[in-house]
Amino acid sequence: MAIEFSCGSCSAKFRIPDTMAGKKIRCPKCQAVQQVPGGEPEPEIEYGFKNEGKAGDDFWSQIPDSSQMPAANPYDSPAPAAARPQRRGLSPADARSRVAIPATALYVLSLGGFFLSIICAFFFALRWIFELDNVPTQQRIATLIVGLIGLSLNYVTIQGANNMRALREPGSVWLTLILALLPCGSSCLCPVAIPFAIWGIVLMCDRRISGHFRG
């Protein structure tokens, strides 16, 4: 059933379900609060709606209010990135022990090649002095110049290998390792010196070892 009554303010008539008897409603025309006849008075509610608000909703009560959250400062420095795990460093003694074998081998081979070159040059000089072979003077001079250059490069290889053992002069060490790959570095012993030169290059590419070189 429906209850018919008129608004006391604007005399507007409207029909209300009997379930609203005794409740207070708001006139949809003049917004005046009226009480529906035929029941006990109840608290004021909107016509056809019951305003419970967000407080009665569990979902909304669990969402934090954005006004209560601290605002981010745009001038704050970004959070530091996680530190990368660093490799364990080597002590100077450890670095020296790792380069000892290839450096000593290159030193001995270069020194041996140096003395063999001197011996060969001595026999060539005797043949030229006693004119045991008919070699033109220009060819003798060219052979002498090439021999001196080879001895000089061989001596550079010896010094570089010695610096490698003492962890000094990385530039000289790199030059030695390159010359040891060529016949001009260790003379006739070059095939034996090549594996040790490659070994030394691999060690010099390790920053934990090359970082201990001074000079």
What is the residue-averaged pLDDT?
Answer: 78
How many alpha or pi helices? 7
Report the span from N to C terminus: 107 Å
Helix content: 40-55%
Q: Which percent range describes the beta-strand content?
A: 5-15%
The topology string of helices and strands comes to EEEEHHHHHHH
Structural class: mainly alpha
The biggest sheet, with number of strands, parallel, antiparallel or mixed sense and barrel status, is: 2 strands, antiparallel
Secondary-structure blueprint of this entry?
Blueprint (H helix, E strand, L loop, with lengths): L1 E5 L6 E5 L6 E3 L6 E3 L22 H4 L30 H38 L7 H29 L4 H10 L3 H4 L3 H15 L2 H4 L5
Antiparallel strand pairs: 1-2, 3-4
Helix pairs in contact: 2-3, 2-6, 3-4, 4-6
Can you walk me through this structure?
- This protein is mostly helical.
- It has 2 domains: 2-51, Rubrerythrin, domain 2, CATH 2.20.28; 92-210, no CATH class.
- Helix content is 48%, strand content 7%.
- The protein contains 7 helices and 4 strands; from the N terminus they run ββββααααααα.
- The protein has helices spanning 58-61, 92-129, 137-165, 170-179, 183-186, 190-204, 207-210; strands at 2-6, 13-17, 24-26, 33-35.
- It has a two-stranded antiparallel ribbon with strand order 1-2. A two-stranded antiparallel sheet has the order 3-4.
- Helix 3 (137-165) packs across helix 4 (170-179).
- The chain is rod-shaped.
- This is Zinc finger/thioredoxin putative domain-containing protein.
- It comes from Blastopirellula marina.
- The chain crosses the membrane at residues 105-129, 141-161, 173-205.
- Residues 68-90 are annotated as: Disordered.
- Keywords: Membrane, Transmembrane, Transmembrane helix.
